[in-house]
Amino acid sequence: MTSATSTQWARLLKNQGTWVGSFTQVSPTGGILQDTPSEVALIPLNEGNTMRQEIRKRPSGQPPSETVLEYSSLGRGVLFCETGAFSQGSIQRSPVSEFGAELGLIHGSDRLRVAQVFPRQPTLGSLTLIREHLAGTEPTPRPALTVDQLIGTWVGEATTVFPDWQPQQSMATRLEIQMGADGTIAQTLTFGTSPAIQSQGRLVDSTLRFDQGSQPVTVLLLPSGASATFPTEIQSGQPLFLEAGWLITSTLRQRLIRTYNAQGTWESLTLVTEQKRTA
Questions:
Q1: Are strands 65-71 and 50-57 parallel, antiparallel or unpaired?
Q2: Is the dihedral of CA 7, 128, 245, 160 positive or negative?
Q3: In what order do the strands lie in the sheet with 78-80?
Q4: Of 260, 255, 258, 259, residue with least CA distance to 271
């Protein structure tokens, strides 16, 4: 292995263990459709050079299913961050093929994954929320995400990794979220020394819609402190991103962002860890 691939493999190993939880099917508007108990075992073999992955699901009223994979290298569409957070998915968007990605965050003995799929169409087709904890531990209860929990100033750090193995980059972040008297949500985001990015959205049920700009964005507020962000309708020729967010405690949030350029090519994966400023 090269040093870059061995670093990636070491980060994969941070996910080893048996993860117990469920796969929750969510509609593109945030409604819960189905919840399937699951168990995912990641077992290192061959002195840690091979990974065996066993995926067991127990859908209600159906026989259980099991999928077993073994691999000793990672695909081109996968990247891991230092925490073990990862994303796997499309390396190129094409209007004639399925497009999407899974984004996984890890904190202590809990893991949260969000899979977003666009089936040959510009709008989201399906979303799966996967909430897991290591076998033998208790899952940390977290309430469903609300806008009220997000309002305030969040300060943190973004670390970006790249599929072409260029050195990772880190920069300071600042996110301010305010609620206007008319119910609009104003968001100001700053990365490093770049100019602030401002956007304005509105809350519709459990969905935030940011409709300005060249690529309107939808944010779904989900159970267990989770959120999923994606283009409301993919505009060809415009850059886009897919994001999973996780409110781990009332003052700690992680976001994982998979970014594509205007040509639809996967460019980077960014993990943001941010703390809420308390007055």
A1: antiparallel
A2: positive
A3: 65-71, 50-57, 32-45, 17-26, 126-134, 110-118, 99-107, 86-89, 78-80
A4: 255
For 237, other C-beta atoms within 10 Å of its C-beta total 9
Amino acid at 46: N
Taking the whole predicted model, whether its pTM rises above 0.90 is answered as: yes
Q: What is the pLDDT of residues 43-69, one digit of tens each?
A: 999 999 999 999 999 999 999 999 999
CA distance 232 to 216: 6
User: Which stretch of DSSP H or E encloses residue 63?
Assistant: none
User: Which DSSP category does 108 fall into?
Assistant: T
Give 103-130 pLDDT, tens digit per residue: 999 999 999 999 999 999 999 999 999 9
Instruction: Give yes or no for residue 206 having a pLDDT over 90.
Output: no
Q: Could you give the CA distance from residue 172 to residue 274 in angstroms, rounded to a whole number?
A: 9
DSSP code of residue 92: B
Two tokens, residue 260: 């594509």
Beta-strand (E) ranges in 4-109?
Answer: 17-26, 32-45, 50-57, 65-71, 78-80, 86-89, 99-107
DSSP state at residue 146? -
C-alpha–C-alpha distance, residues 169 and 186, integer Å = 28
